[in-house]
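Budget justification note: compute hours in this period were largely spent on complex prediction jobs such as the one shown. Inputs:
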Amino acid sequence: MASLIAERAPIIHALKEELIRRLNLPFTPEDIHEDISLLGSGLGLDSLDALEIVLGIEHCFQVRIPDENIAVLRSINTVVDYVLAQRNQTGGPA
Amino acid sequence: MKRSPLRDLLERNGAVFRERYGTEVVGRFGPRLSEHTAVRDAIGLSDFSWVRAYSLPEEKGIDFLDGLVAGNVPKIRFGRLLHTFLADTGGNLLGDCYVANNDQEFLFLCESIIADTEFDRLMEEAGAAEAGAVDLAGTHALLSLDGFRAWEIVKKLFGPDVLGLPYLSIENYTFQGQPVRLVRAGKTSEFGYWLLAPVAAAPALFLACQSEVEQRRGRLCGVDVHDDLRLEGRFFNIHAEGRRVRDPLVLGLQWMIDFEKERFLGCAAIRSRRAAGLHRKLIGLAAEPEEDALRGGARVFHDGAPVAEVVASSFSALLNRRLALAPFPIALAYSGLPFRLGAPDGPVVRSISLPPILPKSLSVKLDEM
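Corresponding output:
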């Protein structure tokens, strides 16, 4: 269990920091629950913000999010799942 | 007990009524699974007239509502909605709210978990009368259209402009000469529209919607199935986890709060808890398909010790397994972890990333509507 947390926690933290910085969100990382919706309800981000998020994820984690995979952006946790899956496919962080 | 203005119509359609916080609501019309399928594959029509609804004049309404709810009311743009909450002075949740900036009025819609008499008292003490708040209970009915094909019905009733409304917006239409406020909202993760109509037009509007819904293999839905739909879509449910946990920070509702605001009900208590740091956080759990014990009150174990208790649960027809929410210690509040249910050697349940489903509505493109 500790190894699963150790793998996941730094990605979550980095992603939150990136979202707060890029989107100028008025929250601390601790304020942002990993399951809240990124688009629509929740953080209430729009399609322009979605583009910023995609750029942020791609910049932070060296993974690509294709247009048809936009559902990845449902929440921070779904983004983290995607990043971990991509890393597992490519054999570890770039 | 307060009843819906549409009660006779609902009863004629086989509504099974139940009481919730002193108000009569429709629990269901038919099998819960059928109602769930209707929303996910077609459309469900529900009576939401139990939602507290107020109209306030713009000028006085802004200050009053801003002092009441946790979100920033003056920042709501014209035609848009703020999703926020109402708390008591101790910072404990009382209601899940929408505030809409609608032309010359502000509309306040609240799913509260307290009795109407208590809610009325709270509003009175907060200065609702001085702010010119008009309680729409009894004079209006609120219908909720939810589902993959819900957009087809509002398009037919109000025209294609409806399709351009973004999530969390409000627009005014007419139906049989009566004003209808259309709120693009919903908490199922499918397309959702709330229609607030005066009682003079509400029965005809209900029948028009019902006819269109049934032509599309949809059906009437009660409130019970909305518990399942909200959990599947990871929409906050004040009637499930909200009622049991009450602390907006543990529930992950910080996004509903403007922490820079000077005042709102419960702000001192919430700020104090935020400064002290979060000790627990609500996370999702999923059971194996055959496992039925993942239910409210069940204890979750880690390393032989109980670490959390389930506060909301439902069967997900889409995933064919039970889902649940439980407040976990921060150190364990991660998805993808195995826990034991009910006992140190109980069946394994896993924490999961939410929302766990991909709603059909996400696949609909505006130019295909």
